[in-house]
User: What shape does this take?
Amino acid sequence: MGLLFKARKRAEEADLSALPRHIAIIMDGNGRWAKKRGLPRTAGHAAGAETFRRVATWCKDVGLEYLTVYAFSTENWKRPREEIEAIMGLLDKYLLEAIGRMERDRVRMRFFGDTSVLSPRLRELIEKTAEISTHFEGCQVNICLNYGGRDEIVRAARAYAEDFKKGAADDLNEELFESYLYSAGVPDPDLIIRPSGEYRLSNFLMWQSAYSELYVTDVLWPDFDQNEMKRAIAAYQRRNRRYGGI
Ligand code: FPP
Assistant: This one.
C-alpha cells in the first residue's frame, strides 16, 4: 500500500507545463506480459500496439513535440516468422487507422529505418502517412521500423562519402553528419524510457542518445499508461542535465 501510494504521488509530481521536447521509448516486455498470462507472444504485441496508441494519444494531448518508438529492430528478423508477421500485421492495422485520424488529431508521422525491404502494402501505407504529415504541424511520432542505431550511422557515413566524392558535401562535422541520419531535423531525445527492467539501449538511437536521460521501470510495455509516463517525466524533471559541464 505504502509503495503504491508513493508511486501515485510521484506521477502527480510531473510538471506537464515543462515537458521534455522529445521522449523516446523502447517498447519492451510484450512477450513476458503474454507469457505471464499463458497467452501467445503475439497477444503481447497486440496489447503493446494498443498501449502505443494510448500513449501516443496522451503525448499529443499534453502537447509533447516528439515521440519516438522502437517498433522493429534490424535484429528482430531473427524471431519466428509468425511473430514477425503478427508485428507487421499490427503495424498495417494501426497505420491504416492513423491515416484516417491524422488530419483530425494533427499527429505527424515519420519512419526511421530501412523500410525498402517491407511488404509493398506496408510501404504504401508508410508513404501515405509520410505524405499526409507534410500538410500540418503538430506532435510528431517517429516509428523506428527495421531500425538499428549502428546501421543508421553506417548508412549516413556511406551517403556522406558519396556526396563528398561528388563534391556535394563540405568537410564533415557533427551537424552535417546528423543531416544524413534518419532523424535529420529532429532534436535528440531528452528522455529515453525502457519498460521491463532491462538496462540497455539495444541499438536504439545510438548517435542521438549521447546526452539523453535514461529511465528504466519494471512495468511491462502492455501495462504502461499515462501514469507511468508521468512517473518517467517526473523522474526526468528531477535530473540535473550537465552535458559534460558542471
Ligand atoms: C519488444 O518486446 C517488442 C517488440 C519487438 C515489438 C514492438 C511492436 C509493437 C508494440 C506492435 C506494433 C507497433 C506499433 C507502433 C503499432 P519483446 O517481444 O522483446 O518482449 P519480451 O522481451 O518480454 O520477450
